[in-house]
């Protein structure tokens, strides 16, 4: 299968623009509009896109790509707000999550992180020592990822108008390769690879809230993926179609974004998808499919078949990718759909996340 | 007076690091920590700086300066969260404010805005039509400033954990000059110029809240200042020491930042400071000094004496700078202090903003 060029990416955006119009039926914003699934997409397509329309935003990638002087290396630019609850959880806290999350959005563009910003919205009455712990964690995670928090801002809102701390991080990175990474380039025959177990972050947060009668020792997988992403870029080169970190909405939602963008189908092999037994067990009790649970330290790569083995090997050679696996294949049919081949030998359609079973997960 | 070089800027940062340590006495975050004045500085110096320490952040400028490849034009990078209340006010709304605010932070580095991001934190139950109005305003303001919203993110928090909409904008710009703009370069003899009337935004917001028994027809001055800033850069060239937009904490706080950074004094001429009679009157009734009231469409430039007239002329030639005025002069003494020569012929020290008389003004 031939890969698709930059012109094809623009053509795909144009096609999406001309799609029969989705309508926003909700008169009020609901939690599911923030869940990263179906409702979020409707809000984006019907409200933000018509008002902010521009090709960078419409590419719907994790980072926008800029070229300050019309030539020279491209810059990646991204933003993410964090409203996770609780602020401190097994395996991390909002500070570490906010750095890793934005480093990862840059990394998914194959960019080397250059600088991050931190915008705090703090609720009046929040303990200064807890704020210090978050700032320390922010600083440590930034150092670990080899990037500086170059700009910061602090706002305080009245008691009862926030929830401790909300934190926005934005980031700038340099793209040191010439690849065009875009879900519109995904083509039949391509392989879908995940870098490790899915659902760890979302389940760790749910259990940390203590609202469930579950005692499971589970940690968030929050991690900076810039090295892992760079390894994939090197291993797959021009055979790499796109990279994405499956956060809100989980693996299922990301794969659905791919099939819609490229007008292809994806067949996912349930047995091949790595899931920790603890996550699997907790999901079963809660009636949640791990395919929809957020990850904060995993990536999904789609590569041409020839590059699949080399990419898998490169991922497994890095500690963060030790459990990487090829989990699916791209097909021409059914276009726009993700089909799961289950462990029982059956198959079912896997749609985007609907509703929000796990609010404020990141 | 000779201007100060980039090395001097670093030396000044080093001096500040070695200053006798300010201590954070508060055990909880208060509204005044978000007011941009004294408490905000204490929080920054005692909590954020020690944890995030790096020269870009410590320059305490409105934008950080980056050089992606160690050469070529510098990039400016900045972030700002907006929690203004009410969301819609005479002269603008949170969307327009968020674009102009971040464009202005880039402009104060003398940068041409390249791309902005928008991170929404929406309270569950917020009307989608109001959200559309904000997005429309965001789009229109971005277009007007010649910049695209290239990256966006939406989070939703539960009812009672927010206040309608909070909005973070971050921005990237290109610096197309070689000047070093920094408050550490301010030197005795320099002139202080403001681009127009002060206090319009803060007073317009206070009146829009309807909590006061005041009926005054006052509009926010929210405006994108990139053209005005570019005009100052061209007019003053190497005689330009620094640019700053006096938002939270007002003109008084910005001038105090200058005198501390450069270890100089500033004498401010009360009669020369342009204030609308409506703002003056409202301030008098509320017992607030307009010098501390936020502006969202004004800049302060400090220039060497030789460039003062040319800078003033350049400002006045632009519609946004029609009421520009030279309002003060930099002196060697008293170091670290701003002194106001009052209209009565007396003089008094003007300190940084203490407390927060006008919370959530931006």
What is the 3D form of chain A? globular
Measured on Cα atoms, how large is the radius of gyration of chain A? 20 Å
CATH architecture of the largest domain in chain A: 2-Layer Sandwich
Per DSSP E runs of 2 or more residues, the count of β-strands of chain A stands at 14
Secondary-structure class of chain A: alpha+beta
Average of per-residue pLDDT values of chain A: 92
* C-alpha termini separation of chain A: 37 Å
Outline the biggest β-sheet of chain A: 7 strands, mixed
CATH class category name of the largest domain in chain A: Alpha Beta
> What pattern of helices and strands is seen along the backbone of chain A?
HHHEEEEHEHEEEHHEHEHEHEEE
Number of domains of chain A: 2
CATH topology-level fold name of the largest domain in chain A:
60s Ribosomal Protein L30, Chain: A
Q: Could you tell me which chain pair has the largest interface and how many residues each side has?
A: A-B, 81 and 81 residues
**Poorly predicted parts of chain A:** none
- The CATH homologous superfamily name of the largest domain in chain A equals PurM-like, N-terminal domain
How would you classify the quaternary structure?
homodimer
Please give the order of strands in the largest beta sheet of chain A: 9-11-8-12-10-13-14
Share of helix of chain A, binned: 25-40%
């Amino acid at each position: 299968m031939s890969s698709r060029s930059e012109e094809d990416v623009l053509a795909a955006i144009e096609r999406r623009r001309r799609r029969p119009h989705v309508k926003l039926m909700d008169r009020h914003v609901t939690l599911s509009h923030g869940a990263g699934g179906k409702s979020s997409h409707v809000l984006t397509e019907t409200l933000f896109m018509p008002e902010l329309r521009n090709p960078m935003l419409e590419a719907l990638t994790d980072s926008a790509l800029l070229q300050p002087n019309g030539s020279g290396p491209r810059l990646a630019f991204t933003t993410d707000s964090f409203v996770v609850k609780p602020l401190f959880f097994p395996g991390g806290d909002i500070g570490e999550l906010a750095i890793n999350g934005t480093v990862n959005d840059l990394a998914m563009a194959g960019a080397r992180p250059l600088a991050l910003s931190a915008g705090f919205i703090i609720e009046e009455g929040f303990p200064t020592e807890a704020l210090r712990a978050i700032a320390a964690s922010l600083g440590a995670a930034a150092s670990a990822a080899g990037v500086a928090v170059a700009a910061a801002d602090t706002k305080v809102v009245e008691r009862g108008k926030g929830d401790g701390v909300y934190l926005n991080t934005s980031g700038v990175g340099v793209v040191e390769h010439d690849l065009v990474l875009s879900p519109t380039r995904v083509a039949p025959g391509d392989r879908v690879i995940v870098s490790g177990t899915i659902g760890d972050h979302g389940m760790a947060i749910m259990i940390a809230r203590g609202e469930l009668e579950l005692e499971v020792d589970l940690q968030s997988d929050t991690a900076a993926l810039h090295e892992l992403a760079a390894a994939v870029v090197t291993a797959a080169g021009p055979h790499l179609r796109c990279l994405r970190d499956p956060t809100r909405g989980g693996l299922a939602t990301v794969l659905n974004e791919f099939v819609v963008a490229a007008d292809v189908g994806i067949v996912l092999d349930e047995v091949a998808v790595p899931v920790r037994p603890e996550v699997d067990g907790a999901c079963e009790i809660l009636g949640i499919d791990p395919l929809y649970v957020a990850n904060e330290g995993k990536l999904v790569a789609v590569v041409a078949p020839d590059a699949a083995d080399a990419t898998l090997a490169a991922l497994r050679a890095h500690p963060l990718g030790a459990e990487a696996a090829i989990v699916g294949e791209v097909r021409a049919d059914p276009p726009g759909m993700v089909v799961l081949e289950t462990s029982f030998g059956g198959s079912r359609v896997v749609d985007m996340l609907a509703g929000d079973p796990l609010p404020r997960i990141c």
